[in-house]
Specification:
134 residues, alpha+beta, three-stranded antiparallel beta sheet, 3 helices, 46% helix
Length: 134
């Protein structure tokens, strides 16, 4: 009777430990992808169109193609090239980056879990306090 209890308890303990390890790995990967998406969005938001600045435009300062190129270059250097689940979108003065990845689960051998990260960066225009989006 004691042996059966030990076997059941040990199995449950291993299962819970696997969930904790896989959950921690998923959180760490999510944080890593969020940081990468934030960095790529900031790189894209640095592609300010000089002609628009000289003309006094404040609504659409970004060179959209250059912003996407800069963000995709940073993502490619990090091993997450644009395409598939990884995307860059430019809207007005904001660059939004979505990065997709996955991790192999240790508890279920051969299974994997998809993880996504998202980041947005805005071009700051003038000295003002912004609340909310861009």
């Amino acid at each position: 009777m004691v042996t059966a209890f030990v076997v059941v308890f040990a199995t449950a303990l291993v299962f819970v430990a696997g969930l904790v390890v896989d959950g921690g790995r998923m959180l760490a990967e999510h944080r890593k992808l969020d940081n990468l998406a934030d960095s790529a969005a900031r790189a894209g938001a640095q592609a300010v169109d000089d002609d628009a600045v000289r003309d006094g435009v404040t609504d659409d300062l970004l060179d959209d193609d250059e912003a996407v190129t800069r963000a995709c270059a940073l993502l490619a250097d990090a091993g997450h090239p644009c395409g598939g689940g990884t995307a860059v979108a430019v809207t007005g003065n904001a660059v939004t980056v979505t990065v997709a990845g996955s991790i192999d689960l240790l508890l279920l051998a051969g299974a994997d879990q998809s993880v996504r990260g998202e980041g947005t960066a805005c071009v700051a225009v003038g000295i003002a306090t912004q609340t909310g989006g861009c």
